[in-house]
Amino acid sequence: MPPHLRRINRGPAAAADNRRAVLSAARELFAERGYHVPLQAIARRAGVGQGVLYRHFHSRIDLALAVFEDNLMRLEAAARVVEPGSFERLWRLLSDEVVASSAFVEMAVEARRELPDFGGAERVLAAFAPHVAFAVAAGEVREDLEVADVLTGVRMVYGLVVTSSGGGTLSETIGAASRAWFGLAPNAG
Asked: What is the mean pLDDT of residues 86-101?
């Protein structure tokens, strides 16, 4: 290879960039191909060797948890403001994430098996708790809605995603199911 086309090894200086590239590739490939996508494919998409991937993430679950952590942090940031309509907005963000990458539901199930202290579900519930209370008090949702119903809603959306025939009505179906489950207004969902 001509010297001007060779990739320069930046060593430890590239560590942060490599980690970001691996996380980005993992997020994309988990969404495209599911939780069990070959790690070699993730390394290749990130433009790094498998050794670099394993230097940052010792196992598939470690990598998935790092991607999931980013998703949780976005959800928690969005949950900071409780106001009229905030439950619906937060639910839409979460359900869109499940639709975009059902692999994360697979990862959460795997994490519960492998890591008994995995707290992803608890963090989702903590993010939603004040929004559920506000929405119930404001009459925005059914009066008997409990925060645990959010996780049932996630399972519902996941089931719709994995059984979808790929038609254009998935978002409409999820919207209708969400409205029915949470008791949201007809234009919500």
From this structure: 89
